[in-house]
Specification:
The protein has 14 helices and 22 strands. By secondary structure, the chain is an alpha+beta fold. The protein is globular and about 80 Å long.
């Protein structure tokens, strides 16, 4: 191996990361679907010619850890048939993907006849066929009712568009103009990555880049091993639950993990989790591994990028036929959200036993719909996800949880759309969109606040797939280290006659024009004893109307006079045991 300046290695490492950013920004600016353009529900990645993950932009982290599985599926399927000008697509969860809506598009990058790199653009499509809405079918009982299944196929071969493949995909979806547009968006993004990688190769030479890549992998392996070494050796057990699978509505589904730390290695063992279920929450191994990475990389003290090197110290065990490694053709669509949340929370609770100062309380879970139907303003089908119904992040030592955060599968990377744009592209009128007081878990560092989101439906026959979790006490956001739980999310349908019905998760709701849906999204769990929260912070929360005067007294032991809006020091000292 030739010697290389370590500063140059750092420069090249950062350039690889910036190329992933360029791929992602291209997707953001050229997509048709608001799921891409507004929410950023996608990831980008680049690999070397051996299929090793070099860098990625993990807007949505649960997608990023699964990216290497998709690349491996392409390289194995097309071994001996990989040519310049090829572009591949895949969405089948049993052929290297994590779940069907997150469609993987990759492009091999050549210099002449020499394969140098791979560029990937992977994102959640507004429509993947099947019986669902926005990619979600709560009534699915197999992979075929989940979505159209696309194994590794070529959209282009040697630069020639494979029109029959395009026709086959587009005839099997409800919104072909959106799907076609976003596939082209992904192809263009990979092409932008190709240009930058070829320019980088021209600047430094392929041998220098290869040497730098090996150095980068070794450096990040060492970084992660150093972080794992800070965690005391031992096996730590935890479990969390999902409300139900959409089919058996009375059964909680268990995710159970033993996290074993031994020196500089860590093993996630899910053997004691439930077996695979009938409904659509089964998690492919790729999704399970990716979710495990979220719990680990968000707990370690110093940031470490996920690449080939930093993956080396990690082992994930999930028996075949289980909830977390199902056998084909079990449905899987909700796994990237519902099951991922439970996996991450279980990982946090397990690691919190060893390093509570680095762990965090549970976040508010996702409980909001994907929607679809005909928009009367355009006469066309639409598909979207209600990303405004976000909960709060969990508290952690030294910090309150963030307000209005995307679920843990996004680790805050999910953006909410502009309400006016949301109303422009969908037949909805937003009635409420504000932070929700008293739903966050109290703590020395409280949970972040969720949202009160309410909208009116302006068209008939709109379908809502109410996918989600966290509406039952057993699945609400739990506190940590003496912090209190957040209040569970709640969903309502308000009918035209004024009737207000509670709506469970993982079911379809079909509405008439004029009806209203309302979501009270949970805040995150609290961290630490709420009575240790500084009085000034509690008073500020009351003044900002995210904690009520009643909750300040009952949950935090801080008595505030509603007339003078001042703290009653004597009564507060009595409640806090200081008198």
């Amino acid at each position: 191996m030739q010697k290389i300046d370590p500063i140059l290695v750092s420069v090249i490492d950062n350039r690889f990361s910036s190329i992933c950013n360029e791929i992602g920004q291209t997707m953001l600016r050229t997509s048709r679907s608001p799921i891409f353009s507004e929410a950023r529900d996608f990831v980008s990645a680049i690999f070397d010619n051996q299929g090793r993950l070099i860098a990625q932009k993990d807007y949505i982290p649960v997608l990023s850890g699964a990216a290497p599985f998709a690349l491996k599926a392409f390289t194995e399927h097309f071994a001996g048939r990989i040519y310049p000008g090829d572009i591949y697509v895949l969405n089948d969860p049993y052929r290297g993907n994590n779940h069907p809506p997150d469609v993987s598009v990759v492009k091999p990058i050549f210099r002449g006849d020499e394969l140098l790199f791979w560029a990937m653009a992977k994102g959640h499509h507004a429509d993947v066929g099947g019986g669902g809405v926005g990619g979600y079918n709560p009534e699915a009982t197999d992979a075929w009712t989940d979505a159209i299944r696309i194994p590794p196929v070529k959209l282009y071969e040697r630069g020639v568009k494979q029109q029959d493949i395009w026709d086959f995909i587009l005839i099997n979806v409800h919104i072909p103009f959106l799907v076609e547009g976003d596939l082209n968006c992904q192809i263009g993004a990979c092409t932008v990555g190709e240009r930058s990688l070829l320019a980088l190769t021209e600047k430094y030479g392929f041998k220098v880049l290869n040497t730098a890549i090996d150095e980068i992998f070794d450096a990040y392996e060492m970084k992660l091993r150093a972080e794992i070494k800070k965690i005391p050796n031992g096996t730590y057990h935890a479990e969390r639950f999902i409300d139900h699978d959409g089919i058996n509505m009375e059964r909680l589904v268990k995710v159970s993990v033993d996290v074993t730390v031994k020196d500089e290695d860590v093993v996630y063992d899910y053997t004691t989790s439930d077996g695979q279920v009938q409904g659509y929450i089964n998690s492919t191994y790729a999704n399970t591994l990716s979710s495990s990475l979220i719990s680990l990389f968000s707990t370690i003290e110093k940031k470490v990028k996920i690449n080939e090197g930093s993956l080396r110290p990690i082992t994930v065990i999930a028996p075949e036929g289980s909830l977390l490694n199902p056998l084909e053709p079990a449905p899987t669509t909700a796994s990237t959200v519902l099951t991922c949340e439970a996996i991450v929370e279980a990982g946090w609770l397990a690691l919190g036993q060893a390093v509570p100062q680095f762990s965090q309380a549970a976040w508010g879970r996702w409980a909001a719909p994907a929607s679809g139907g005909v928009n009367p303003r355009t006469g066309k089908f639409f598909g979207d996800i209600h990303f405004m119904a976000k909960g709060g992040g969990g508290g952690t030592q030294g910090y309150d949880g963030w307000d209005h955060m995307g679920t843990v599968c996004t680790m805050g990377g999910l953006r909410a759309p502009d309400p006016e744009l949301h109303e422009t592209v969908n037949p909805f009128l937003v009635l409420n969109y504000e932070l929700l007081p008293d739903y966050a878990g109290p703590g020395q560092w409280r949970g972040g606040n969720g949202t009160h989101y309410k909208w009116q439906v302006l068209a008939d026959n709109i379908a809502f797939a109410m996918f989600g979790s966290g509406v039952r006490k057993e699945t609400g956001p739990c506190g940590l280290m003496g912090g209190k739980d957040g209040i569970c999310s709640t969903q309502y349908l308000i009918k035209n006659d004024g009737t207000k019905d509670w709506v469970d998760v993982n079911r379809f709701v079909r509405t008439e024009k004029g009806e209203i849906l309302e979501i009270l999204a949970s805040g995150g769990g609290g961290f630490g004893d709420p009575f240790k929260r500084p009085m000034a912070e509690v008073f500020k929360d009351v003044a900002n109307e995210v904690v009520s005067i009643t909750a300040a007294r009952e949950q935090y032991g801080v008595v505030i006079d509603p007339e003078t809006m001042t703290i009653d020091q004597v009564e507060t000292a009595k409640l806090r045991g200081q008198a």
